[in-house]
Design a protein that fits this description.
- The chain contains 2 helices and 8 strands; from the N terminus they run E-H-E-H-E-E-E-E-E-E.
- Strands 1-2-6-3 form a 4-stranded mixed β-sheet, covered by helices on one side. A two-stranded antiparallel ribbon has the order 4-5.
- The longest helix is centred in the first third of the chain and has 17 residues.
- It is globular.
- The N and C termini lie far apart (38 Å).
Length: 153
């Protein structure tokens, strides 16, 4: 299983571009089989109807939706699906007090069934933090490496 912890700047797409470039060069080494798992998680700093609550209409301007498009393209290119359910509280806006969903978890489509849970918990918000924790439980089989018995002469 390959896990990428991502921070994407609010104004730039450098991280997404670096991820795309890295995967283009290294995907065959990271996921040599179509059954290998890949997870992208972190603060993507992008708003979209696919993950933000519908009532946050101020987040669905052309500016915000256009900013999310490169991420959506990258997700489509690598067969990634949204694992963290839409609308979970993630970050409370200081102006509107609405909860937004800037952080996310995406995984390869065949990996989504391995997530036993993927959620947030308001009670676990730490002091002086502005993002909630994402709590994920996965059930992934770890292949057992066979060790060859060696004689110690």
């Amino acid at each position: 299983c390959t896990i990428f912890n991502i921070y994407n700047d609010c104004l730039l797409t450098d991280t997404q571009e670096a991820l795309a470039s890295f995967l283009e060069c290294r995907l065959a080494n990271l996921c040599p089989s179509t059954h290998d798992h890949m997870i992208w998680l972190g603060d993507f700093n992008r708003h979209h109807l696919l993950w933000d609550e519908d009532y946050n209409t101020q987040l669905f301007t052309n500016q915000y939706l256009n900013a999310a498009q490169p991420l959506l393209d990258l997700l489509a290119d690598y067969g990634m699906v949204l694992t963290l359910p839409k609308g979970l509280p993630m970050l409370q806006s200081s102006s509107s007090k609405n909860w937004t969903h800037l952080d996310n978890v995406f995984c390869t489509d065949h990996t989504s069934d391995s997530f036993l849970s993927c959620t947030t918990n308001l009670a676990l918000c730490g002091p002086a933090t502005n993002h909630l924790l994402i709590l994920s439980v996965l059930n992934l089989e770890v292949p057992i490496a066979m060790t060859e018995e060696k004689h110690n002469f």
